[in-house]
Amino acid sequence: xxxxxxxxxxxxxxxxxxxxxxxxxxxxxxxxxxxxxxxxxxxxxxxxxxxxxxxxxxxxxxxxxxxxxxxxxxxxxxxxxxxxxxxxxxxxxxxxxxxxxxxxxxxxxxxxxxxxxxxxxxxxxxxxxxxxxxxxxxxxxxxxxxxxxxxxxxxxxxxxxxxxxxxxxxxxxxxxxxxxxxxxxxxxxxxxxxxxxxxxxxxxxxxxxxxxxxxxxxxxxxxxxxxxxxxxxxxxxxxxxxxxxxxxxxxxxxxxxxxxxxxxxxxxxxxxxxxxxxxxxxxxxxxxxxxxxxxxxxxxxxxxxxxxxxxxxxxxxxxxxxxxxxxxxxxxxxxxxxxxxxxxxxxxxxxxxxxxxxxxxxxxxxxxxxxxxxxx
Length: 376
Ligand SMILES: *Cc1c(COP(=O)(O)O)cnc(C)c1O
What we know:
The protein has helices spanning 13-22, 31-44, 55-65, 82-89, 135-145, 199-206, 212-216, 236-246, 249-272, 299-311, 327-332, 342-346, 360-373, and strands at residues 48-52, 73-77, 94-98, 120-123, 148-152, 160-161, 164-165, 172-176, 189-193, 285-286, 292-295, 334-335, 349-352. By secondary structure, the protein is α/β, with parallel strands linked by helices. Helix 2 (31-44) packs across helix 8 (236-246) and helix 9 (249-272) packs parallel to helix 13 (360-373).
């Protein structure tokens, strides 16, 4: 059986977790959390990185920092995970869904401006599969309309757009370290902040509305309650698990990219015959092989393909049910313009197994079965 995902594991995780335990510092912001924050700051060239308990929470922090409130509108794709919308709905805002581009499955940048109203507060591009949205256009629209840009870079750590790390182009970026992502800590994430002016407030919001971060740095001699806030910092044990992965980030990335290239080459004959579609990586984008997906002709063909793969011990999956068609999406959000591609393309998409421990032999077996399905 080839499962769909195996959480990344490098072999050093338990060593670092016991180090955290022996240091008797397993609460948040211990040595491993600091190491992870600094590594991300250096690798992505970001002003400030704060490890969080999830990407959902990092996005919630961004929504708080952006002062998104009741009635505000936030432009985002409908083809995304629920967290993208949840973080803003929780603040009383309205997600305004815009159609995607069929090539990258990302927000169609040419449709954003028409969705802007006087209530629009932010644009939330989602870098699907770790492939960048058209950020120059998005940033230009945002600057002209005085909107904030919050990148849902949950899938995009180690990816770049024109040389810049995804998650660092907008005002805020959010990474995920869920076990389904390229690097993991079980549950976890990070908030990336570009402007110094948000850093102190972010630290306070993340630490229950207290200035405890300042206290730990010795900048004040006691800490107190200074603002509203919540608890968004992960245990240092989780950060220790993540550190074992960040330490080997380049190896993990290279291995995933090799598997991705192998899928792409072996399935190319099917694409050339017009039997299926393969992912598109626009010029200027470097991706991180977060996932490998193919697109079947339609929903019916995809259903048969998934069943065929399952019969052959390969677990592949589809996603997302477009948010605007889900009960909460109908209740809290609205779709601006026409849904030309969101529903249609999401019904064709099929994700093949992709994880660090996957082998070249397994990929060959999978591509062989996909070819068999298409009688090639
Ligand atoms: C995984 C994911 C999230 C949520 O990440 P968590 O760390 O589980 O909160 C949000 N957005 C997208 C696009 C994702 O893929």
